[in-house]
Design brief:
The protein is of the alpha/beta class. The chain has a domain at about 40-135 and about 155-185: Rossmann fold (3-Layer(aba) Sandwich), CATH 3.40.50.300. The chain has helices at about 45-55, 60-70, 75-80, 80-95, 115-120, 130-140, 155-170, 180-190; strands at about 35, 55-60, 100-105, 125-130, 170-175. It has a 5-stranded parallel sheet with strand order 2-3-1-4-5, with helices on both faces.
Length: about 200
């Protein structure tokens, strides 16, 4: 598989993780809860609520990247290109030495096997999912949002490319269609057996 979002990137070597269907482990208090998914699916908003519900700290890797680089994601992509952005994202994720956090990743984190393997070693991975038509309504200004997407590509192309990556890395995939943010959090807690 070739990463179209990060073309010719040495940081993306194709999906190497085999999907093993397991019942997610109950995370201990020092484990992280990692969220992955498409832009606009609600990782940051749900992440804050999940952090409150589990008494964990919260970090959004997109915000962490922006703070470390001193510029927006789109400015980084415009100045340095998609491959360089993916390298920066990978390095930032690998630098996280966190325990007991909810971590909301950028949608492109799944292009890096190293970053995802590292994150998954720290706790369960939750894929927040929404149908393409719902995302299209939520994401009006995709180009200015700092999304790793090659010129000429559409949201549909990105969705088709990334969905297998999200599903392969996830311990849980949760469809948020028709659910409030609180209901999504409650479902995550239930599936991770943290609701008691």
């Amino acid at each position: 598989m070739v990463a179209r979002g990060c073309p010719q990137s040495p940081y993306f070597s194709g999906l190497q993780r085999r999907k093993v269907v397991t019942i997610p482990r109950v995370p201990s208090d020092d484990q992280n809860l990692i969220q992955i998914g498409m832009p606009g699916v609600g990782k940051s908003t749900v992440g804050v609520l999940l952090a409150k519900a589990t008494r964990r700290s919260f970090i959004d890797t997109d915000v962490y990247i922006q703070a470390g680089q001193g510029r927006s994601l789109q400015e980084i992509i415009d100045a340095q290109g998609l491959v360089a952005f993916c390298r920066i994202e990978e390095q930032c994720i690998l630098s996280l030495k966190l325990r007991g956090h909810v971590i909301a990743t950028g949608g492109s984190a799944v292009y890096s096997n190293a970053a995802m393997g590292f994150l998954r070693s720290t706790g369960p991975v939750v894929h927040l999912d929404l149908a393409l038509d719902v995302l299209e309504k939520r994401l009006e200004n995709l180009r200015g949002r700092g999304v790793v997407m090659a010129p000429g590509r559409r949201l549909k192309d990105l969705y088709v490319e990334r969905q297998p990556l999200y599903r392969a890395w996830a311990d849980i995939t949760l469809d948020g269609a028709g659910k409030t943010q609180d209901q999504v959090v409650a479902e995550i807690l239930r599936q991770l057996r943290l609701d008691s």
